[in-house]
Amino acid sequence: MSFYTFARGLVKIYYKFAFRMDIQGEENIPAEGGVVLCCNHMSNLDPTTMAGFVRRPVRYIAKKELFEKRWSAKLLSALGAFPVDRQTTDMKALKTAIKLLKNGEALGIFAEGTRVKEGEAKAAKAGVALFALKGEAPIVPICISSKYKFRSVVHIRYGKPIYLDEYKGQKVTTEMMEEITEKVMEKVREMRVEV
Predict the structure, then answer these.
(1) φ/ψ of residue 121, rounded to 5
(2) At what angle do helices 91-102 and 127-135 cross, to 10 degrees?
(3) Is 0.85 topped by the overall pTM?
(4) Residue pair 97/135 in contact by the 8 Å Cβ criterion
(5) Local structure of residue 124 (DSSP, 8 states)
């Protein structure tokens, strides 16, 4: 058993005790092959929620600041996360993400780049589209809705995969990436549950 599988098991046990789960659309996540899982981000618990309730291992892009302490860097690396510098075009992170997708792995990303409270508006970063286009992978929009209070409901909605075949062979432009990202985030917003 891998450390990731062990940690996911612990998360599920804790969530069973602490919350009530309402999950829909799990069948929309492809069982194999590269896929970008694009989720909203309202709480520090969202990455844990996403990792605990996706049946296949997910590799996460996490802000480089989380890797500054040795213990957290070791833990995150053991869980399959890798760092990104959000202040620049981080080519190393981009290449890592594309390689993972082409190797058939699932890549988890919070497109807004930071936590966004309910009712706030924040533009999503176009990286989600760039990873999917260059990694030749579909994007599955995911929406988590919860206040994460003890015994409250955690709603998880997995949308249908968004395939980018219509963009194949075209030059990747900023407008194209923004168009794709907005399409994905619109699906995420549509799945939000009032809590």
Answers:
(1) -115, 130
(2) 40
(3) yes
(4) yes
(5) P
